[in-house]
Description:
By secondary structure, the protein is α+β, with helices and mostly antiparallel strands. Helices cover 25% and strands 15% of the residues. It has a two-stranded antiparallel ribbon. A two-stranded antiparallel sheet has the order 3-4. The longest helix is centred in the last third of the chain and has 15 residues, at 87-101. The protein starts with a strand and ends with a helix.
Amino acid sequence: MRERYCRVCGSWHELDKWPHNCMPVKSQAQSDLPAPHFVSDAIDIQSMHDGRHYTSKAKLRSAYRAAGVVEIGNEKPQPIEKPKTDRQAIRNELRRVHAEYNA
């Protein structure tokens, strides 16, 4: 016999015989869909490049790629390369300043 603590009434119930009045209340925000965060390919948009209407994001993007247009907002940011530190120049400058003020 497996039991679990009920958060609704505060007692223990068997998993096979869970009381109906202790079932969690489903909120309105939850969806009955198996994949509520599904992103659809469907779109109804007029291209700013060629003025044609598109109903598919994939077709719009392929038309952009074929024309060499870069779609702003979807490209990955390029890493910024740090300039190489010239340690020898730093040492020389420190030696110069040290010699100037400690002479």
